[in-house]
Amino acid sequence: MAQSGYLQFCPVAMAAELLCTRWTAIVLRELHAGTARFNDLRRGAPRMSPALLSQRLKELEAAGLVVRRPAAGEPGVLEYRLTDAGLQTRPFVEALGAWGQRWIDPELSLQRLDAQLLMWDMRRNLDPTPLPPRRSVIMFRYPEQPEGLRSFWLVVAPDAPTDLCSVDPGFDVDLYATSDLRTMTAIWMGVDTVRAAVNSARLTLVGDGKLAGDMQSWLGLSPFAREQRLAS
To answer: pTM for the complete prediction?
Structure first.
């Protein structure tokens, strides 16, 4: 813990010295979401430098919130797991997200678009239940984005983790979803809906009709999307 913090014995001040340093809450968010490996943590915080991520993980480890251990069955691969103390930061992270959803103007959030973060969040929140019992490939296209951030593929297969690809995985595509990044981000945040975006021609769905019709169900919105907005 930093020696040049608030210099107060108050538990709020002591906790803030550890949990409120830059990017720490984001790292905790990723760990609570089940992300365990360094490169995957980077995908959830694409604007965070690898050096700073490494530093924050070491700080959390030193404070007893995170433990580093070998991945089962994968020699040389390390995973970061929350300890009991780390798991008890979940209410802190969830309260931050709920407060932000209720009180931060969504227009401010939608000025901070990030295609990589959006797709990573969509991958881990996707609900495969409404999807057919076979491999489904959904391609998302954001035509206004620079090359490299324009196309993403979600590959969903029974009894397997959803895979996110930024290069063509080589499978036939079942559904093409084309929109601007702002529209898709607003849908994921719960500010917009698939139906409204389709009806206003901001979102185009081409391919499997059932996949298109069920998109609002399987898309996997932000865990905070259902929070009632209170900001004026």
So the answer is: 0.87
